[in-house]
Amino acid sequence: MSRSASVVIAYLMYKKQFTYTEAVYHTRAQRPVIDPNDGFKVQLAQFAESLNLMR
Amino acid sequence: MVGFYLKYGFTHEGTLRHHIFDAGAFHNVVSYSLLANEWPDTKAALVAARELAAIKQQHEIANNDDDDDDDDDDDDDDNDDAEAYAKWAKYSGIVSAVNRITSSSFTIRAQPEPAKILDYLYLGDRVHASDPDMLRALGIDHVLNVAPMAVMTTRFFYSNVVYDEINMMDDTEFDILPHLPQALSFIDKCAPESDEHPPQHKVLVHCSAGVRRRTSHPAITWHATHTPTLTLTHR
Does the CB of A27 have a partner CB in chain B at under 8 Å? Predict the structure, then answer.
């Protein structure tokens, strides 16, 4: 449950301006089995940072 | 409930000591699992238990003046079995579709439907992706498959569904960032004009995994990696 969850988390950050933590908690509240792998977590954090720079 | 798991063919995999911190205290997580090839036996045992409970109940109505104490104990067990059957019967289709069901003292990890993340955005697995009737019932008309190498449901599987795929590897070294624009713009095609508008389209994002071993206790993994006190207890 890593790849699709990571895509969904990225979308929430992009569209809903969620932080990474908010996006993860929101997703997990609906589907408890998500667990982005460590490499994806780092990349999602980078993605969140780049979104912040663009705003 | 622990007795139930062992009685019906679950294997005790181990105890994760102090794995959860909740309400001011550490809790152990006890993990039990059942493999798909073990399910038929478990199901047969549950069916038998339910039938036995029904027979006993009729027998007791007929012999109401038997030894009360012993009967009470039996009743409790029978009710547990009947309830357990009702609970597990629900999962029979899912167990055959995934490799294993891992259970713990907290939850059963299999979801019959994809998770609704937003009104127009669903997150699921290959079992959900391979069920066109359910997708239609949920109003899902877009599917984004991010594990096309790992599932059978690629673009030829669907009719009347807008399909896209991105070949992502579930590997810590895999670079997901270059693929996000394609993924996010595909999802965004289903976004209504504003939050007030009902969604015209709905999208399912899925990879392959439904239930898998390393995500048996994901909520806990998250706490473990993000709460300093717990990180120490884990390493």
Answer: yes
B222/chain A closest Cα distance in angstroms? 8
Distance, in Å, from the CA atom of A31 to the CA atom of B221, rounded to the nearest integer, reads 15
**CA gap B89, B45 in Å, rounded:** 12
Residues across chain A: 55
Backbone region of residue A42 per phi and psi (left: phi > 0; alpha: psi in -120 to 50; beta: other values): alpha
**Nearest 5 degrees, angle CA B151-CA B203-CA B108?**
60
Supply B8's token pair.
């019906």
Question: Is A5 in the B-facing interface, judged by CB distances under 8 Å?
Answer: yes
Strands (DSSP E) along B41-134, which ranges? 100-104, 115-118, 121-124
Q: Cβ(B96)–Cβ(B209) under 8 Å?
A: no
Full-model pTM: 0.56
Q: Do residues B145 and B161 lie in contact, with contact meaning Cβ atoms separated by under 8 Å?
A: no
Summarised one tens digit per residue, pLDDT across range B3-16 is 667 777 778 777 77
- Of A4, A14, A43, nearest to B123 by CB-CB distance is A4
ipTM of the complex: 0.93
* Cβ-based contacts of B164 with chain A (< 8 Å): none
Q: How many residues does chain B have?
A: 235
